[in-house]
Amino acid sequence: MKRKLIKIMIFILMVALIVGVITYYLNWKHFQQYGHHHNFLKTKDNHPSVQVGSYKTVMNEKNVRYTAIDEYLKKQKFNGDIAIYYQGKLVMDKGYGYQDFINRKKTNPNSMYLIGSAQKFMTGMMLKKLETEGKLNINDEVTKYLPWFQTNEPLILRDFMLHQSGIQMFRPKTNIHSIDGAVHMLQEQGLQPDMFRKHQYNDANYIVLARVIEAVTKMSYADYFNQNFVQPYELNQTAFYNNTAYKPYMAKGYNELKIPEFPAYMDQYYGAGNLYMAPRDMGKFVLALQNQKMFNAHTTNQLLHELNTKEFPHAYRYGFYSFGQSARANGIFYGQQFTCYFNKDYILVMGTNYQKPVGKNETLMKKIFMDYLKQPDPTKKAKQ
After folding, report:
1. Chosen CATH of 59-372 out of 3.40.710.10, 3.40.50.150, 3.20.20.140, 1.20.120.530
2. What tens digit of pLDDT does each residue of 46-73 get?
3. Backbone phi, then psi, for 88, in 5-degree steps?
């Protein structure tokens, strides 16, 4: 009896040991799979094979033109970063002042700025990409893609792209925490009286377009942008507001009194103002467009140069302004300004997180573009 009991206990111990080994193996296997999956997602979000914060200062001390620009910015006490491309080559990228005054963190080419409405340029190119691929039609009614977006006038995607939809001005709310919630709110608010098909610049238009992009691609706006623009064009210092890997490079915005301004409601601003970017990356983005890496020659030429036509009746189109021979994208948001001028020879990008008075950033840019780089006014149609 005693021997039988011992055998039973040994059997139970053996079963327990086997179960323990199997359980340990399964847990280990799960950990390995989870760890691999987690690392994959992290790598995907933070741009594969890219070292974050790898940009170095570019400054040719022997070039009189660029050293003169450098001295001018120092004299003007510019606080931010400037990037200049000439005929496709980066010729200057330098930081001035501080990306964080409180912690005395100096600006450098890796500093990233909240680009505000300049993000509409990206949204516009995302929209155009889907259009050229036949996945949407700019003249389709928005209800084809968002069936619930019913209004008392038939709105087409072009109305949103040209800021002529007439929907209510966008005012974020504290109880909304997604682009879907923001767009549902806009649908419920309806159109402004007598504003249908009248031009009125409004963040709401591009927030709706961002939601359309999600509906067409079955992807989040951020994922689609990262996979189709950030990674292919090596925008190594570009990230959305909630990307923790890039937090150390995101500049802090300040008002004219150098009081910090803290971005709010960012989860509602997909498509219109929640992207951070280094000036060098905006230059890369523009180069990809100019060099026909995004679209064919015909589409590129239309986007960049066509004016006063049925398709492009005004300078504004797909998130930026074209004046025929030159173009401009701009955003001011939460104490930061991010502006880009470009033509066939030059791309000039400047980001700032402190300026006094507000708008000084573009005043400096015009001076540099016209007086130092000897280019025509980038905000006016060139004289024939």
Report:
1. 3.40.710.10
2. 455 567 999 999 999 999 999 999 999 9
3. 85, -5
